[in-house]
């Protein structure tokens, strides 16, 4: 009987403790915030992100200091709504901006012939780009932005790998030219000395 009483008392305290913390609101706001940051919308929609994030940070401070739960719930809900608005309104626009940026990156990679030097990186970039285009055409902006970000990363890698190798080759050609001139000068000096 006493054991049941203690178990019941423990369950009652657990229920009260769970109800007192707005865990669902915190989880929702954190998930939306992380998604906004993941897609780089925190810099693309900086002003709106800062407004939502200020409410989120204030709620975290209140949570840490065991503040008023109603106020915490309100702040977290407002922050979630702000993050969601950014995702709903700015994500489609950002997907199109990324698509245009990637088109330039693709041209730079093609011009420098990155597909020959870093074939793997270039192919991964193109695969991500095509997957992003497909997702964009079906209004799946999450997938489009993720793939465009990956495409940008791999096109940059392919471009700079190729550029580095190209610059090393130019440097080595210059050294070889200098050595040839030096040999030619030695040969010219030797032939003029023999006359």
Describe it for me?
By secondary structure, the protein is mainly α. It contains eight helices and no strands. The protein is elongated, with a radius of gyration of 30 Å. The protein has helices spanning 2-20, 23-38, 41-44, 46-64, 69-111, 114-117, 119-137, 141-194.
Quickly describe the structure.
The chain has 195 residues and is an all-alpha fold. It has helices spanning 2-20, 23-38, 41-44, 46-64, 69-111, 114-117, 119-137, 141-194.
Structural key phrases:
195 residues; mainly alpha; 91% helix; 0% strand
What's the SSE blueprint?
Blueprint: H1 2-20, H2 23-38, H3 41-44, H4 46-64, H5 69-111, H6 114-117, H7 119-137, H8 141-194
**Overall spatial form:** elongated
Low-confidence blocks of residues? 8-16
SSE string: HHHHHHHH
Quote the distance from N terminus to C terminus: 122 Å
Number of strands: 0
Largest sheet: none
Structural class: mainly alpha
Number of helices: 8
Strand content: under 5%
Secondary structure: helix percent: over 70%
What is the residue-averaged pLDDT?
81
Structural Rg: 30 Å
